[in-house]
Amino acid sequence: MAKYAAALDQGTTSSRCMIFDKQGEVVAVAQEEHEQIYPKPGWVEHDPKEIWAKSQKVVDEAVEKAGASEGDIAALGITNQRETTVVWDRNTGEPVMNAIVWQDTRTDKLVDELAKEGGQDRFRPTTGLPLATYFCGPKVRWVLDNVDGAQERADAGDLVFGTIDSWLVWNLTGGADGGQHLTDVTNASRTLLMDLATLSWVDENREAIGIPASMLPEIRSSSEVYGEVQSGGALQGVPIAGILGDQQAATFGQAAYDKGEAKNTYGTGNFLLLNTGEELVHSENGLLTTVGYKIGDSKPIYCLEGSIAITGALVQWLRDNLKMIKAAPEVEDLARTVDDNGGCYVVPAFSGLFAPYWKSNARGVIAGLTRYVNAGHIARAVLEATAWQSREVVEAMNQDSGVALESLKVDGGMVGNDLLMQFQADILGVPVIRPKVPETTALGAAYASGLATGLWANQDDLRKNWAEDKRWEPDMDESTREELYGYWKKAVTRTFDWFD
């Protein structure tokens, strides 16, 4: 009898497989980083074949570590970096080029062209999204325009497009030999091509961007049996039964199933999602409207989302580009060598600014430098940048929802950093709460797959699994908080309109 659910968590910097038991506890984990490719300033790519190979490897390793035998694993769930775009040949399975990553800004001129008719909000009424380099549609158009022969092959029906979940499902279910080309509603809602109300592709948007209909995957719910693993390996024959974009998966793993519940994930970027129930709430303050999840035949649940491009990636930049630390966790020790940021602010607009500004021509700055500032101050400013950006998103969310946040559930790789979490509580003025399983992205995908296959009976079972691990209470007076925030806002304005 099945006792586990598996999750393949394909993130921006690594692929990870986690095995969970019925209590939502981690049984085994395996993880592999993949290469970050930067061909030009502002361009970010991944090798889809490397991602597929690493994904297969971590699945086999995790199952082996769990000591799981045939029949132990009820289902596999998939969660993924969302807007990263792959175009491949349906006959051979070969990608036509590297995947264009969600952070990539090469489509800025395409986005400007599309905005000439209808402005930045041209597609927002149907999709909930502004025109921005972040989303998939313009990325597909760029591939068709810039890869030799791609347009002709697409017109002939030979090329298909997908986010990373589609690429993995296609390969897992047979690839060129009968692989299924599909996605779920959460990933489809990040393309600029899906109608949030009908959960179907919008021909008008697709035609405006110039994408043949034959390239698009079938849209399915977030929790149902899509097929079985046919690619060999440790999960051969196991149902694939859950797909959620990574931030929606984290929301689901946090058991934020009630209207008004919110979570913030601290990863490569930061993503704060607020459950708005079955109601589609269109933002007036720079947030995205997105599908939170759809369980089988149930109605979709929607969210407001504040997306921040660079948070954990800023720590990686400190490590890899500036060589100030050797490993990411060292940033906290370095930051603790000083009492404050020394007046230094780092605004990491490496890929432009996402929520609530949506300025693709912004670029990063370090502001407030004096001879007093040392490496510790810069490290502290790097951590504080994550908290300040999250505060901006929380303020926009409070305005859109009309309800002030009373506490914040947090998850992701950075929530082990006590200095950051305390500062986040301080500058929000509300408690910050970490669950016992902080990697809720993988947990959410496992939950979706287990719901579809009967490992869990309903969402009440999942609520019972959630447990608090640690809580940080605010410990900063309001006048200090607002003074520091004023300097942050001033630093942000220095990034605007860096180039035409």
Give an overview of the whole structure.
The structure is a single chain. This protein has about 500 residues and is α+β, with helices and mostly antiparallel strands. It has 16 helices and 23 strands. The strands form seven sheets. It has a seven-stranded mixed beta sheet. Strands 3-2-1-5-14-13 form a six-stranded mixed beta sheet, sandwiched between helices. A two-stranded antiparallel ribbon has the order 4-7. Strand 21 (about 410), helix 13 (about 420-430) and strand 22 (about 430-435) form a beta-alpha-beta unit. The longest helix is centred in the C-terminal third of the chain and has 27 residues, at about 375-400.
Record the strand order, biggest sheet: 17-18-16-15-21-22-23
Ranges with pLDDT <50 over ≥5 residues? none
**Distance linking N and C termini:** 61 Å
Largest sheet: 7 strands, mixed
User: Could you tell me the mean pLDDT?
Assistant: 94
Oligomer: single chain
C-alpha geometry: globular
Measured on Cα atoms, how large is the radius of gyration? 22 Å
Strand content: 15-25%
